Amino acid sequence: MIRVLVADDHPIVRQGLRRSVEESGDMTLAGEASSADEVLRLLGETEADVLVLDVFMPGRGFLDLLRRVRADRPSLATLVLSMQPEEQCAVRALRAGARGFVSKTRSQDEVLDAVRAVAAGRLAFGAGVVERLGPSALAAPRLPHETLSDREFEVLCLLGSGRSVKEIAHQLALSPKTVGTYRARLMVKMHVRRDADLVRYAVLEGLSA
How far apart are CA 26 and CA 20, in angstroms? Predict the structure, then answer.
């Protein structure tokens, strides 16, 4: 049986994943987490084969969390779920330690197939993503957001979702001053002068969290 740890801050999503895992026949639920801190706590208490991880849960950035999970539990396979376009975040997630990335728009069967794939040691993506990722992973950055650091990228995504500096600071476990510094860097790198321009860019590129 594949032991699955589900991490998502939306109870309805966790409920759906729990039901799918329990009805799969070859998986069992190892636990549920609604924040990054709960993920780390459960990993110290629970035996799991696959972590199904939502993007941007409370506590810290998902890329930082991925690196922490990889360092603490290198044998654990992590599958990232997100509403964001897979081609926008999949490369960053893989570099941070994820074994797969699937959009929440995919069916439950596709998500379960991805769980089975990463549990077996394979990489897993939604339909058609491999073809899009192949060239982009090797090509030089083409869009402004592709030049950002991981933390800058996370702040941009959260700004795109309409969150305030204070809310982002709480989300990423940073001080508001530090988030303000990242926002200032984003404006320079993205060649804009207003927060509204950053938000508009994030929304148009499908980067809002």
Answer: 11
